[in-house]
Batch of 4 targets.
Target 1
Amino acid sequence: MDASDEAIQALTAVPYFADVDAALVAMIAGQTIRQQYDTGQVVFLEGEQEVALYIVQQGWLKAVKMSPDGREQVLHFIGPGEVFNAIGVFVESTNPATVIALEPTILWLIPQKVILKLLDDYPELARVVIQRLAGRVQQLIAMVEDLSLRTIESRLARYLIDQSTAEQLQRPRWATQAELANRLGTVPDVLNRALRSLAKEQLIRVERHQIQILDYNGLEAKAGSDK
Amino acid sequence: MDASDEAIQALTAVPYFADVDAALVAMIAGQTIRQQYDTGQVVFLEGEQEVALYIVQQGWLKAVKMSPDGREQVLHFIGPGEVFNAIGVFVESTNPATVIALEPTILWLIPQKVILKLLDDYPELARVVIQRLAGRVQQLIAMVEDLSLRTIESRLARYLIDQSTAEQLQRPRWATQAELANRLGTVPDVLNRALRSLAKEQLIRVERHQIQILDYNGLEAKAGSDK
DNA sequence: CATCAAACTCGACAAAAGTCAAGGAATGCG
DNA sequence: CGCATTCCTTGACTTTTGTCGAGTTTGATG
């Protein structure tokens, strides 16, 4: 598989291009730029003016806001098949967040001009972009609600329920308690305290790389409460 | 001025229709529904499936998340010339927030079908929608940062700077300290404390319906800090 | 103009979250 | 395999924010 095939594969995994015909996808693939990042490397910083659209082929990243004293708020985790920096493409503004690789990562960049031309040629693409942005709005509103109106324990319960499959949450290496704490708007110590509390009440079992939900209904009650 | 002229006037005040020709605006105006709300009335509740696009002709509203114990987080205030419920139009989902009138309000509703048809006929509209949604994403990211990484006092300082004109912030009747506290993610008592603190340091002067910035640089330092 | 409800003020106290320090466990690297 | 680094755990203490109760001021209404 050469670079172009690799790019085509990455692009076709993404809803943005679902309705774009194969010949055009191939042409766009020829205009993309492949980039690799190691664990911990910054893709771009908040405040810069990065305008390309990014596609994740491999690896996980985090979009974060940082405070002067070193705290982080993870806005979201970004994995394979996902697109990021739509804001940078469509709005003339600085990037609202910093994006950092959580593990070795392969990205494909599509230049802004290419995307904007594509938007003109494929009105259906606009529909997809609108829907993805609307999804981002909804996710951020939920986060605002969490941060403002709910306790850490309640946020954790909700997160465990949302992210679990068959009542289990696998934690890849990069998904440390520190990252999870940053996602929930707190610090590792407080997260650990909340995990302990839920475990003590037999709602979950905590292992290093896995959290098991023992009492789904009990956990849902915690998630639904503001306490 | 009859109802149709009134609707046309409301629509032409909105960026969504800036590039739509006058005849079509007039036609859309003919399909809009006029609604009035009194102070405190709910336009729609979080969890409902309201799909129309709303235009504000007159009056102010707030979009809020509410907690079971009665706390509110104001997501944003919506005033004349603004559009809301784009999410409801473009995504098949329940409304993420409750919208309530803060004072007597006149709205115009555009049915979903009309908007979606317009989107097909006017690709430039998609660009506008995308840009407005992107703006909402940016605003919500800033709110997440406030709630997670900054103290109440720092949030207040930032808010005062952003919302003031010529170093003054007028507070209309509906903009009580309670509403402002809900916007900043806290309770009126804590907001009052923060106002007092800034006033004690001669950074601002607080009157019932106006806040004057006395030391812009000092306030900016507070806004830029995480303390 | 008088009354009443809403808004604001303020201090005491409580709760939630953050900081710090120390020790133990797990993982990665040479 | 041993060592160093990272991650996790835990309790004590501190800070920030929220709750409560009482009193004062303002603005709307009849």
Target 2
Amino acid sequence: MEHRLDEIDRRIIHALMDDARNVSAPTIAEDVSVSPGTIRNRIAQLEDRGIITGYHASIDFERAGDRLTNLFMCNAPVSERETVARRAQVIPGVTNVRELMTGRRNLHVLAVGEDTDDLRRIARSLSDLGIEIEDEVLVQNETTHSYAPFGPNDGERAETVTDFISLSGDAEVAEVTVERGAPIAGISLERAVREGVLDDDSLVIAIERDDSVLTPHGSTEIQPDDIVTVFSRGGVDEETIETFRGE
Amino acid sequence: MEHRLDEIDRRIIHALMDDARNVSAPTIAEDVSVSPGTIRNRIAQLEDRGIITGYHASIDFERAGDRLTNLFMCNAPVSERETVARRAQVIPGVTNVRELMTGRRNLHVLAVGEDTDDLRRIARSLSDLGIEIEDEVLVQNETTHSYAPFGPNDGERAETVTDFISLSGDAEVAEVTVERGAPIAGISLERAVREGVLDDDSLVIAIERDDSVLTPHGSTEIQPDDIVTVFSRGGVDEETIETFRGE
DNA sequence: GATGAAATTCTTATCGC
DNA sequence: GCGATAAGAATTTCATC
């Protein structure tokens, strides 16, 4: 009954962790070379076996009406931890609960509130359950990602984008590693812009090559393994990144 | 541009946080009494506005091949926190990163590893980024939930199930609050079983009423607001819970 | 695990307020 | 700009091999 996961299961998990809503069974099926029905069966099995426990949208509650996200780090007696964890989950505002194996702060409760008063209400609800709040912090940002080892193993494919900063307005700066076979590799910046390979709104502002940093000019050629810094006034979108990515 | 969310947006967010994959636009549309197309447009807007940031499957990695989930609580200089957070995200195995506003442990990194060696590799990767690991703990369990205040406001509808414990095998024990209008309310246990209202595999083992605990017999009648403890050898499924829930 | 028909849902374009 | 509507494409469901 305790079947191990095969390649199909792993790829399904990877795909659904990455995007649970907009990935269809046929899409995954093509990647793994089986029929869509098989993907569907496997997904149902993974759900039945309790491996896939749910699909949840991630929400930026700060943008969604100026709400606060707070992390309560709590102490619950080990013998009751599972029970109080379950009761904490249903407190209105609580969106995530982590039970930790050891330590004094063995219960992390993530909660969203309209304001600090609302968070106090949640704190009181936790206390009422016999949970001791050891520390609490506002959460600035949270991101969730797929489990890379379950992803496609096309070689050593490192992530292309190594850094990423949003500036005022829609402008963004991204640092990307140029892959072999990337559309922009081997041609000059001037030509890249002229031929539309590089977006008009994007500007290569630095090139890191062999541990030294070059200042790019029109005649500068981008090479594989260069780490280029790209500024884009309208935001660095997926299409721009593709320019630096191999096929 | 900074429009506040209306009831439609809130209900969409609630629905997608609860189940991002198996909820269709028409389903939500019916709940809110608008056309499916509108729901679709709103979802696209919420994504564009950066309020919905993604849809992720939740995976129980312990069941998925005996992997370990570990939480690294780290310290990153505030000035570099955003940058290192972004770099930490792409370390293979890292599935979640929380940036916290204040405190010494202002970066929580959740990572999955095949074994402790694998986790050490991830820890080393974090250190290489200049992140100081202050503490680390194995995660036993994690659950994610919808944001209740965005849910349907049909009265004060408290959660029916207040506690839930899995026993050996498939057996489970659940503690549920009986709602007004529930199928089982007002009839004796014996009759409930006879008429199929209560599952054959389910057994009411305790009734908490007015702060005292009753021992149930065949002639005992379940009343609204009773907190009943149900044991089921095959697992307490949604159908069983419905027995205690109002229409 | 694959196949095929039927129901549902999603995409897209178009119209009206 | 926002929501409703309708046609065609794609996906999911279900039974069957």
Target 3
Amino acid sequence: MSKLQPVRGTHDLLPEESRRHRHIVETGLAVSGRYGFGEIETPIFEFTEVFKRTLGEASDVVSKEMYTFTDRGGEELTLRPEGTASVCRALISGGQTQNLPAKFFYQGPMFRYERPQKGRMRQFHQIGIELLGAGEPQADIEVITCGADILDAIGVLGRTTLEINTLGDTESRQAYRAALVDYFGAHADALSEDSRRRLALNPLRILDSKDDGDRRLVDGAPSFDDYLNAASKDFFTAVTEGLDRLGVRFHRNPRLVRGLDYYCHTAFEFVTDALGAQGTVLAGGRYDGLVETMGGPAIPGVGWAAGIERLSLLAEGVAEPSRPIALIPVGPGGEAAALTLAHRLRRAGYSVEHGYSGNVGKRLKRAAKVGARAALILGDDELARGAVQLRDLDAGAQEEAPLDRIEESLARFR
RNA sequence: GCGGGUGUAGCUCAGUUGGUUAGAGCGCCAGAUUGUGGCUCUGGAGGCCGUGGGUUCGAUCCCCAUCACUCGCCCCA
């Protein structure tokens, strides 16, 4: 910490970037609101146990990716690495389990102690939705469609592909996992070092290995579809048929998997090739075992999360800030008039820039730079007869206008 | 956590086969224009050449370390 600098993997959001983020959040809130989701705000830290229980002690996430600390009271706390666990905790601790289904939208900062890359920060921001208490495929359809609608509203849907897969129910998944362990175990010599480790920890993950040798083995691996029982097949068919009926385009990716046991049935990701290795833009799935794993009742859930930074890199149609009216006083009388006029116009709803110093030329220059649409030049001569100079900064035209009815003259620059 | 690349002005980047005062464009400030922006012209400010150590008569340049950024891997709840 020799120099004054932000902590690694964190960054400041200056007004322009902040506006892009806000646009994404507000679009997500508005669109999800039409689906019946209401915003929930949970604390940005929880007892470490909240996240540990949902992840399993041995996982990489717990061992190296959580921001964990002990507070002055000796409590083990963790900055939230994701939103789902917090929302489920809120559902349980807030007694909302009697009021189902529950539909939440959330947004805000998340924290993961990772090596930063493009679109991957240690403090980053997500939007997400969770639909709890509905175990029907209609819920999956609604959640996925809501995600697609939000992506569409911010102009990124066209540059993404929806990949979707099923993990089946517990019975199907365990049967498939056993088959994979048999298959890859028989070819362990040919697996990459990473995948030999996955074989013991998380065999499903071998399916999306990036190693060429692994991929050749994966091509010959057992197919999940052969291990899905009838109930799992029916569920997945209902989801995909629903998406078809709504015109939501998707691509079946049999390699798309989730590692943890409480995931089941639908897994999906909207991916893009425009962001290097961080191609996942919005991802989610069904997690029927999670709430129970955390110590609550058996409540099914489905949801997704999306990284705002990544969305911001792709988003289009972010509104420019409103163009201000610039006030340019000349002389002491002008200064006094500008002070009160700025206040009056702001209360009337105008965005007003009040240059703080300099002569007329300098202030006009600054007005042009901040994008002012018009300037009011307040000179003693004009003020003496109750008037100001109104300058159209785009057209370069200028006219004298009465001060007491200046709102009428400014209306066309609003 | 592992591997590759890069750190020179506010920004984008040149440059020095190791040698006196390190450059450009853009931006910024001032003047031409004492009450009128954009265009133009003139001038100016702004650099521990990321940081620390080493080699050398001499290091922005070579070596080592460190920090940061960046790309990929692991991981991605």
Target 4
Amino acid sequence: MEKDNRSPERREVKTSRSESKEEGSESNVAKRARVSIRARCEAPTMHDGCQWRKYGQKTAKGNPCPRAYYRCTIAPSCPVRKQVQRCPQDMSILTTTYEGTHNHPLPVAATAMASTTSAAATMLMSRSSTSQGLSSITAPVTSTTANINGVNFTLFDNSTTRPYNFPNGSSLAPPTITLDLTTNTSTHLINRFSQAPKFSSTSLDFSSSSENIKFPTPWGNNSNYLNYNPSPPFNKTPFGSIGTLDFSKQPNGLTGNVRNSQSSSPSQQLFTETIAKVLTSAPSFQHAVAAAISNMVGSGNSTNSWRATGNGPNGYQNQVTGLATMAKPSFTSYTSNHSQSTLMSSLSHSKGSSSMAPSTSIDANNNQ
DNA sequence: CGTGTTTGACCCGCGC
DNA sequence: GCGCGGGTCAAACACG
């Protein structure tokens, strides 16, 4: 109670806050779209390669677990925020919700996550903007499953099983996509997120497809395809669009594909390779991702421009203390002007260039 | 001393 | 119009 004697300043605070809510016209859409990642994680927060500052904590209604609010501190003006909350049903499950788009260079480790969320968010916005009559449909839970070497990617409409973090749901909740890494899952894979910031994730964007698509993967023996089969009802939810990518099965038999990356786990490696394979072997898929990220970043420029961290001309790098060390174990610390550049460059670089740290192993098993 | 976290209050949008 | 709840702020505090 004695805390708040700042009411005069509050007026200005309020003004600036409402400004910041509207700020970034280019990211207006992006700010509305949110991407949640559900993962088993013992750590208080997932390390995604970015640097965050906690600015608040709140106990949400209907959830005894407090929700923590973080904002990206790599750049002072970065609008990206994330919310971290434990699942009341299973305290080991951590839900991290990202909102907004970074407006500054990112290290690879962070870019991977940013790309993922951006692409997912773009998928959301793309679908919600193109779908019609979404409020009139109450679709049952429908799912779309892809299988890559035993890893299931399930994209399902959970509109009827409303996420707990939006207890009263409805229009209050911005369109949100959930990447569900919890079901049955590869705990080591998750732990890579939670403990070591060296996960070279990737970006999945299913937005531009309308039919069953199979992306070949060069390894494995039976299900050598990433099978994407969008269910029509997916894009029609009362919330705009809500979906889940469900990495529901731990790949067994992780042999042969594991590279010699310093400290990556086999499952992480496999996962990375899996995704990389899909992307590198499916140009159209790359395109979709690139376009998605391009949209999110608000720049149609697809030029890759690389810049070493540590002494970038814009000064950002100096602010990201700890970031370099975070990225060190697995990545040569690159940043790029645009997340899309980073992702796509990392793909192409890893194919033939030595610029990328070999441990990204994106080029592993490339079957060209 | 600098940086990050905690925490109570305030703002604002939405539902009733 | 009112109340509720989520999101945010910033002073105080903790920690290295």
